[in-house]
Amino acid sequence: MSDIRVLEPEGVSLVKVMREDGRGLRKGTKGPLPNDETLLSIHRAMLTTRLMDDRMLKLQRQGRVAFVGSSTGQEAAIHASAAAFGAEDWIFSALREGGVTIQRGMPIREYVAHMFGNAEDTAKGRQMPNHFQCKDVNFPSWSSVLGTQLPHAVGAAVAMKRRGEKSVTCAYSGDGATSSCGFHSAMNFAAVMKAPVVFVVIDNGWAISVPSAEQTAAKSYGTKAVAYGMPGVDVDGNDVIAVWQTVREAVERARAGEGPTLLNLRSYRMGGHSSSDDPTRYRADEEVEYWAKRDPLTRVEAYLAKQGLLQQAARETMAEEITEAIAEAVTHAETVGPPALETLVEDVFAVPPKHLSKQVVEALRIVAEQGEADRVQGAFPL
Ligand SMILES: Cc1ncc(C[n+]2csc(CCOP(=O)(O)OP(=O)(O)O)c2C)c(N)n1
Ligand SMILES: [Mg+2]
Questions:
Q1: For ligand 1, what atom is nearest to the CA of residue 182?
Q2: Atom of ligand 1 at shortest distance to CA of 273?
Q3: Residue 337 Cα to ligand 2 middle (Å)
Q4: What pTM does this model have?
Q5: 303 given a catalytic annotation
Q6: For the segment 58-82, what is each residue's pLDDT rounded down to a tens digit?
Q7: Element (H, E) at 160
């Protein structure tokens, strides 16, 4: 085999619970297991994300959505980790954890509205697609600037601790973001201040075209925790139960006032970095094939089938129902239209300053006289 990124590189030992074929647990499994309801809800969230990404990528190829950063291959890491937090906790995400909004109760219509950036988008079309926010489910908006969400997650955690609240924050990042200043500041402050935060790095093998093995000279991302004085654990990120168990333990530690934990979930980005990327230019087909055999969705479905919790027919009915809900949301989103021009100056100032209000009046006059500008192909490079 050529030099491809494998699940467990030499010298790295991952926490694993489920057999690789999903048909049961590995020998010597300890610790609490997620109950049936939790397992099934994680699976439903994984399937929803898989189907949503498929549909969004197709819409992007048709020019109906501007940008997509998909989660395909990472659904276990994303949804099993999110399931370990409570409704009162806060999720600070990176690019690929947007499906957690739906898992926590945001309607599919709201998700799709954001992808279109239409008048029903709660970000009012001001964000790139795939930059979700949802106040109702404690999911703040994120910035494309890598790692900036991490100090925010720590700040929020410290604030909650000072108020005597019992909430915990979840700070997601990719392997690439571990090289950001935000990662260092967040890890350092969190450990020193014993902030109730759980750092969840999803190592998906790549940061655009930089392989995660070249992102750091450390043996694993989990070992980075040592320097900051907090526990760090490397986990098979395609193993729903291992992810849920390790994250849950970290959440309990944080809630009990024992401080932060770093979890490194090893997984794989099956698709391109985004809809603007062509990964065949920098990675071997062999590597993608290796990981396709470790698809987390197939694996958890094999597990659920073996446990008698979900059979093929029920899975297909569920997939049809989700596909239908996404289709309905897309049809609706395309009737909505863009946000009103006036919204451009809302939300920053209680009363927009005169120069901004004047610009809106001017923009409305031009639109009244000349109509809306033509749509252009504004490809975003990343
Ligand atoms: C501070 C900063 N530097 C560089 C970039 C350009 N950039 C966008 S995504 C990306 C890679 C991110 O990789 P990773 O953190 O592993 O997340 P993944 O996309 O793999 O989920 C880079 C370098 C950026 N957005 N912000
Ligand atoms: Mg990455």
A1: 1
A2: 19
A3: 34
A4: 0.96
A5: no
A6: 999 999 999 999 999 999 999 999 9
A7: helix 149-162
